[in-house]
Write a structure and sequence with these properties.
By secondary structure, the chain is an alpha+beta fold. The chain has one domain. It has six helices and four strands; from the N terminus they run αααββββααα. A four-stranded antiparallel beta sheet has the order 1-2-3-4, sandwiched between helices. The protein is globular and about 40 Å long. Bound molecules: zinc ion. The site of zinc ion has 8 residues, from strand 3.
Amino acid sequence: MNADRTAWEERSVARVVSPVRPRKLAKVPFVEMADGRLQGVVSSGSDIERVYVSSIAAGTLTYNCSTNNNRPCGGLYGDPCKHLRSLVDEAVLQYGLERVAGYLKAEVPENGSLIYSIQGGVERSQGAAVFSRFLRHLAYLELPAASGPLPELHWFPSGVS
Ligand SMILES: [Zn+2]
């Protein structure tokens, strides 16, 4: 799938995924609960070509953030960085607070925010696996785009309020 990978690199994340849920997906184009983690891909606020791979481990609530090239996120000192915050925000929008907190085994106080329960500290891990899942996800989205209209996308909600 080298052709797909090259094609992706020549486009912005936002343009590839914008038909589905423009505003949110531009910021957090990919979020999933898999392999015992809440993990996803978060766009850089300043550079549309750069993305971060953020993840939070269920149970331990340790977290990590790095660029897609496995460079440590410069904003991750001790507390979750803004990418992790965006990841949590989007996961809650997409799956609902109860489901995300339940998956992570995080205790969320009443009227509290999930992000404040993410207190496990930084645990460096490889983001490459998450990023390659994201690329496969994009390749799937791009398949119908190559052959005309996107009937499948009508199944997606146009937004979550
Ligand atoms: Zn970060």
